[in-house]
Design goal:
With 141 residues, the protein is α+β, with helices and mostly antiparallel strands. It has a domain of 34 residues. Helix content is 16%, strand content 8%. The protein has three helices and four strands. The strands form two sheets. Strands 1-2 form a two-stranded antiparallel sheet. A two-stranded antiparallel ribbon has the order 3-4. The longest helix has 10 residues. The chain is flat, with a radius of gyration of 45 Å. The chain starts with 9 loop residues before the first strand and ends with a helix.
């Protein structure tokens, strides 16, 4: 196998057609890519009218030249700005929204106010005095 030559990759679609993906990429690399990055399919940055303002090579070169994550030798001390505290000044506070009982609105049926939850109690039946035929049959075994 020779290393210099590259084998064409052909793919079979569901309809049975053979497609060369590398050929499609090379044919369409200057067409504007879909999205909001203003680049073509190759990766060049496009300017107004679709002209190439920065090539892909320039973008990569700028990326690797910019230092990333470099730590400074001396730490930067950030000073908090102190807020002035007024001397001998009385601060007056006001209640903006005091809690009030809601006033009933005319024309709208108001819900009943429940103070305490009261569980239902089971009433026991008291034995009634028997009368009539029940009283007569009570003594007979």
């Amino acid at each position: 196998m020779v290393r210099g030559t590259q084998r064409k990759k052909l793919y079979r679609t569901m309809q049975g057609r053979m497609v060369d993906i590398e050929k499609l990429r090379s044919m369409n690399e200057n067409i504007r890519a879909v999205g909001n990055m203003n680049v073509n399919a190759r990766g060049d940055i496009l300017g107004p009218g679709g002209t190439i303002s920065k090539s892909k090579e320039q973008v990569i070169k700028e990326y690797y030249e910019a230092p990333k994550g470099v730590v400074a030798d001396t730490p930067v001390k950030r000073m908090a700005i102190p807020t002035p505290i007024p001397q001998n000044k009385v601060v007056e506070t006001k209640v903006i929204n005091p809690i009030k009982e809601p006033q009933p609105i005319e024309g709208i049926k108001q819900a009943k106010k429940i103070d305490i939850f009261k569980p239902k109690t089971v009433e026991t039946k008291t034995p009634e005095t028997k009368s009539g035929i029940d009283a007569a049959l009570d003594g007979i075994e």
